[in-house]
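Z., the sequence and structure:
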Amino acid sequence: MKKIITTIVALAMILSLSGCKKSEPAGDNGSGSGNGNGNGVKIGKTAGSDNTAPEGQAGDVKAEIIVETDYLVFKIDSKIPLESDAWTGICPKGSYVYEDDADEAEISYSYCENRQSENEKYIFRVDYSDIEDGDYMIVLCNTDNSGYVVASWNLSVKNGKPEVDKSSLTVYPKPANLKPAEDPANPDVKEDENDDFDNSNGGYDGPYDDDGHDEGADDA
């Protein structure tokens, strides 16, 4: 009888222990549906400073956005190189990859202000005074010469007042098939073999014909 009782007690203990297993831990974000990185960051979204992130991912672009009368001011830190003709503009909501597409769609834009050193932030002042109420996108383009859209924000305008959704900042990778830049809009002037530069009057004194006479001068 003692053996039977002992066996029953042992079985009861085994059953009780099997019912005490820990439940599976929740995801890293505590919701049970973790995204694998523990901080809710999605690829393509900014997430503080991540010096190891490849271009177009977390931390590549940070922005301080200030609403002034008539202007949205963007003070941007960018690990992605921006040219001196980089620009920020307001576009209708859409999907923009190439700068040319954003350029055709922009409603208002601003080139970056001159910087005194590479350590300074890129500053853009975009005029919103004539923007009608509605939903828009702010785009940041790396250059005005066949570039691409580096980042974007969602923008809403209500009763003439703009509101930028800072949490919507998305950073994009450089397109693999980005076409090469075109020639600069104002290439350096090249001297023609028939042109003669005259420093005395601060400019070209010509052009001249084959006999060396100034084609633009009156005959004496």
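The CA atoms of residues 6 and 12 lie 10 Å apart. The longest strand covers residues 161-171.

Let me know what you think.
H.
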